[in-house]
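hey so u asked for the seq, here:
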Amino acid sequence: MAADPVELIHLLYEHGLLQLKAAQAAVAAGDVTGRTRAIFKMLAILSELEGSLDRNAGGSIGHNLARLYQYMRKRLVEGNTKRDAQAFSEVESLLRTLDEGWTAMQHSASSPAAPLYSPAVTETMAHNWNA
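ran it, structure tokens below
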């Protein structure tokens, strides 16, 4: 719970990547329950990320991230409905790119990333996803 907002975003991205791998493995194994469980967790992560954005402070970056999260949710639902592992791979690639960017910002001396998310992000995300 002591992690800063940038670290918490990174943790959510990492957890999301694990869920996407689980969904892809479940598709390959024909495990409908496992696939659905992983996708629902990933959808919750994306909702948390989007809901925590501070679009006023984040400006166009915040709005673009919100649209990207919405697109990713759409692709996950399509992938789940159609049992399409390619949709999961696409979302995984997008999420991995975002995670790499956040990791680079995290190691930067002056991170512009934190203002993109509201101050409540630390408390909520730590409670929901870092437990």
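The CA atoms of residues 24 and 69 lie 19 Å apart. The longest helix spans residues 55-82.
lmk if thats what u needed
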